[in-house]
Structure formats: structure tokens, C-alpha cells
């Protein structure tokens, strides 16, 4: 039983990797890791933006319960209700050495020493670009190799988040930062929900360069893990917080916003090597999975389900994956439920159909379904048949053939909101909020529940 954990994560990646079929992005190190791992093809974040997604990943709980309904840095200041629910605290209680390197975005921003004490880390060193993160992670692995205690090392890359560059044109923040070079050597992959334009090609070339840049950092850390003789005793996790920082992706509850890369390399368990799993999984399932794989105890009140039974015995972990957006740069409350083949989104405000994640005045990429001069406001409910419409472009909520599936998903969403004590269920903030809740209640009431054995 592998006892150590190396958890690698990055910003804003979605599944934009060679391992997920993106042929124009060069990610040799992550592709090699994927070949040695179980790759989850239908893994989803609980939220399409940074802090709530990470809070769920590192606590195994939904934002409504852990308290991180928005960004944790100033001027937003959201925070974990219970910092001791962090995975680092759980592992430290089990005897682990715990370190955090690079991105921290799952609890209120504080000096490193205060973060360490609050979240259960022996040492925290936040910030830094790729090369600084690699150097610090290598130092952490050297300390781990010299210790008899098992280790948990949490390493976060800023890339491929958008970063300001003196190469950007006025009104644009791209992906270049100080060190990234655009990469179109193998072509350009414009996501199908965006129009294939010259502007999109320019933007995606930058994104591809940023992903390649991050991949090299992952490769350097994995090489150091092997050089220190730790690879055969370490579970390696790679994931990201949410989808790409492109229009109609990040900050939306479409699959492009909440679909994530997720690999687990598990030495000593051959069934995990070179596997692909297409069943639904959620970031809240990661904490219980790691605790079971390392024998480090049972999760306290985790909302997720360990994926060990799914991988090793083909027992589905969940019937539904849930998502939420409450407050990113402004209040834009949405909730979603996804089954294997359908998605329902509840929009509780009159905000624009898709929040803009580009941090730019000017846009180089535009959604394919932008047909008028403005993006418009959100409908109360969206329903998509993912078998025929995987890019969620045709809202079928009023189609008579879909009434039963709409009602089933509405009932599941209402039940989840109740179980998580969702603050949006009471005290509507606007007439639209009240209308959305009433509509959900009416539609959910049409569903005749049937016994379901799967945890949700």
C-alpha cells in the first residue's frame, strides 16, 4: 500500500490535454502520467471558479457546507467554516508530514505561517511561477526522502491561468505572462463552443503554450520524485480546479466550465494502471479515495464517495454530479445537476447568460451561440440532452419528450440543495430568485421517485 501522496493541481485547465484527445497541445509529461494512471473521463468540479472548486477538492464537501461560496482573496474574503476539515489536517492527525507549495486558494488569504497552522500543514510556501514552484517542490521531496514519516505534498501551479504581459495588446489579458511562448506547432484546437476565428486561433495558441509550460513543471517534479526513490510508495494525483478561462467555459455550469482532468497513479495496485473510467465522479470523491488508498482513516462528513470500489470492482460512485456558482466577481447564483446523459441548470438571477472569465475589455474568442448584439440573460431553467448535444447549445427544457427527465433532474437538484442546507433555498433575493425556486419546486413535484441504490 502506497503511503505517500503527491497532489498536483493547476489553474483553469479543464481537460485541455493530449490525454483527453486534444491533439494540438503538447503535454508529454502529463500524457505519460496518464498512461500509468487511472484517467477519469467524466470528472467534474463542484464549481466553475477557483476557490469554491478547490475548497471542495481539499475538504470533500460542497461549497454550501464548507462556506467557500466565492473567492478567498481580497476584496472577497470567503473562508472555510472549519479549516480543520482540510485534507492536510486529516493526514497530519494520521502521522503525515504535510507541505503546501505554490497556489493556495481554498481558504482566506493569510501569511504562510498562519495558513500552515489553520489548514494543518507543517510548512506552507505560497505563490511563485512554474520554476519557483518546481524548485520548492524539489526541496520538499528532499525533506520527505530524509524522513521516516509518510508525506502529503500539495503542489499548485498558477499556469495556465491568464497573466498580464507586456506583449498583450491594450484591453487584453492573455496567457503569456513573462515566460510563456504561443504554441501552434501542431495546429490549433478551438473548442467547439467557440467560433473558429483568427482571434480564437491567437488566443488558443497562447493557451497551448501555457499548458505546455505547466506540463514541463509537472515533469520536473515527477522526475525528482523518482530520483529520490519515492515513486513506488507515492500516490500521485493530478487535477485542475475547473474549465478553461475562455468564454462559455470558466464561470459557467456547462461541462466546459466544470469538467476537469483527473488522474490517479497508484503504485502496488495494478488495476489502477493504464485504466480509463467513464462513470461520473466529482472532486468531492478525491478526499475519501485518498484516505482509503493510504489507509489513513475515514473522512469526517465527506460528501463524496471513495472511487476505489469504482476502479477495482466497477461499482458506480454516484448517479449525479452537482455544480454551483454563487459569487465570483458578482452575485450570479446558479445550480446544476448532471446525470450520465443530461444536464439541468437552474439560474436564480437575471445575470448575463455566461459570466465573462477573460479578465479583458476586448474579446478574441466568442461563443458559437452568440447570435445577437448582446449575450442576453439566462433562462430560468436550462436542460440539455448530452447524448445529442454535448456542447449544451440547444435548451430542450420545454420539449414534450423531455418532461420526465427534466422532472427527475429537478427533483435530484432540489434534494441536493436541501441536503447541503443551500442558502439560496430561503429568503429570495429578487423576484427572479423567487420565480426560479417556485419553478424548480413545480417541476420537481412532477417526478415520481423510484428506488435508487447509488449514493448521490
Quick gist of this model?
With 456 residues, this protein is an alpha/beta fold.
Description of the structure:
The protein has 456 residues and is α/β, with parallel strands linked by helices. The protein folds into two domains: 4-313, 3-Layer(aba) Sandwich (Alkaline Phosphatase, subunit A); 321-444, 2-Layer Sandwich (Arylsulfatase, C-terminal domain). The chain is 29% helix and 16% strand. The chain is built from twelve helices and 15 strands. The protein has helices at residues 28-35, 50-59, 63-66, 87-93, 112-119, 130-145, 198-227, 255-258, 286-294, 308-313, 403-419, 431-444; strands at residues 4-10, 38-40, 43-44, 97-102, 123-126, 151-157, 234-240, 259-260, 262-265, 275-277, 281-282, 321-327, 331-338, 342-347, 381-385. An eight-stranded mixed beta sheet has the order 5-4-6-1-7-9-2-10, with helices on both faces. Helix 6 (130-145) packs parallel to helix 7 and helix 11 (403-419) crosses helix 12 (431-444). It is globular, with a radius of gyration of 21 Å. Residues 450-456 have low confidence and may be disordered.
Determine the CATH superfamily of the largest domain. Alkaline Phosphatase, subunit A
Amount of beta strand: 15-25%
CATH topology of the largest domain: Alkaline Phosphatase, subunit A
Radius of gyration based on Cα positions: 21 Å
Main sheet record: 8 strands, mixed
- Give the second-level CATH assignment, the architecture of the largest domain: 3-Layer(aba) Sandwich
Q: Characterize the overall form.
A: globular
Number of domains: 2
The CATH class name of the largest domain reads Alpha Beta
N-to-C series of helices and strands: EHEEHHHEHEHEHEHEEEEHHEEEEHH
Average per-residue pLDDT, rounded, comes to 94
For the secondary structure, the number of strands is 15
Return residue spans where pLDDT drops below 50 for at least 5 consecutive residues.
450-456
Count, helices:
12
Judged by helices, strands and strand pairing, the structural class is alpha/beta
Distance between the termini: 28 Å
* Residues in helices, as a percent range: 25-40%
Q: Kindly report the spatial arrangement of strands forming the biggest sheet.
A: 5-4-6-1-7-9-2-10
Amino acid at each position: 500500500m502506497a503511503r505517500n501522496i503527491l497532489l498536483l493541481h493547476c489553474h483553469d485547465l479543464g481537460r485541455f490535454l493530449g490525454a483527453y484527445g486534444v491533439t494540438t497541445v503538447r503535454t508529454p509529461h502529463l500524457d505519460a502520467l496518464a498512461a500509468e494512471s487511472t484517467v477519469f473521463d467524466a470528472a467534474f468540479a463542484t464549481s466553475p471558479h477557483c476557490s469554491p472548486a478547490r475548497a471542495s477538492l481539499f475538504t470533500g464537501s460542497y461549497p454550501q457546507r464548507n462556506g467557500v461560496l466565492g473567492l478567498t482573496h481580497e476584496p472577497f474574503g470567503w473562508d472555510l467554516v472549519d479549516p480543520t476539515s482540510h485534507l492536510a489536517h486529516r493526514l497530519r492527525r494520521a502521522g503525515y508530514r504535510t507541505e503546501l507549495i505554490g497556489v493556495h486558494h481554498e481558504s482566506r488569504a493569510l501569511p504562510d505561517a498562519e495558513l500552515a497552522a489553520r489548514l494543518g500543514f507543517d510548512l506552507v510556501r505560497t505563490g511563485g511561477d512554474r520554476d519557483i514552484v518546481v524548485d520548492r517542490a524539489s526541496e520538499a521531496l528532499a525533506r520527505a526522502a530524509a524522513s521516516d514519516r509518510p508525506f502529503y505534498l500539495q503542489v499548485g501551479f498558477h499556469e495556465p491561468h491568464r497573466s498580464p504581459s507586456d506583449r498583450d495588446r491594450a484591453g487584453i489579458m492573455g496567457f503569456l505572462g513573462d515566460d510563456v511562448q504561443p504554441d501552434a506547432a501542431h495546429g490549433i484546437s478551438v473548442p467547439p463552443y467557440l467560433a473558429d476565428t483568427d482571434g480564437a486561433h491567437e488566443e488558443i495558441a497562447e493557451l497551448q503554450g501555457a499548458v505546455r509550460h505547466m506540463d514541463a513543471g509537472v515533469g520536473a517534479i515527477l522526475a525528482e520524485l523518482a530520483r529520490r526513490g519515492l515513486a513506488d510508495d507515492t500516490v500521485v494525483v493530478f487535477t485542475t480546479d475547473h474549465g478553461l478561462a475562455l468564454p462559455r467555459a470558466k464561470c459557467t455550469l456547462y461541462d466546459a466550465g466544470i469538467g476537469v482532468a483527473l488522474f490517479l497513479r497508484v503504485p502496488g495496485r495494478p488495476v489502477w494502471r493504464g485504466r480509463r473510467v467513464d462513470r461520473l465522479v466529482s472532486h468531492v470523491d478525491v478526499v475519501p479515495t485518498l484516505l482509503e488508498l493510504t489507509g489513513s482513516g475515514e473522512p469526517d462528513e465527506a460528501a463524496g464517495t471513495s472511487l476505489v470500489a469504482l476502479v477495482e470492482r466497477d461499482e458506480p460512485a454516484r448517479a449525479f454530479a452537482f455544480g454551483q456558482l454563487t459569487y465570483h466577481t458578482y452575485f450570479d447564483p446558479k445550480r446544476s445537476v448532471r446525470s450520465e446523459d443530461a444536464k439541468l441548470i437552474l439560474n436564480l438571477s437575471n445575470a448575463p447568460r455566461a459570466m465573462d472569465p477573460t479578465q479583458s475589455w476586448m474579446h478574441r474568442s466568442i461563443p458559437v451561440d452568440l447570435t445577437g448584439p448582446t449575450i442576453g440573460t439566462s433562462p430560468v431553467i436550462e436542460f440539455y440532452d448530452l447524448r445529442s448535444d454535448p456542447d449544451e447549445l440547444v435548451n430542450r427544457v420545454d420539449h414534450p419528450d423531455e418532461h420526465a427527465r427534466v422532472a427527475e433532474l429537478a427533483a435530484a437538484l432540489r434534494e441536493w440543495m436541501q441536503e447541503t442546507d443551500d442558502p439560496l433555498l430561503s429568503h429570495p433575493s429578487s423576484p427572479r430568485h423567487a420565480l426560479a425556486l417556485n419553478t424548480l419546486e413545480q417541476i420537481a413535484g412532477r417526478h415520481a421517485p423510484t428506488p435508487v441504490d447509488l449514493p448521490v
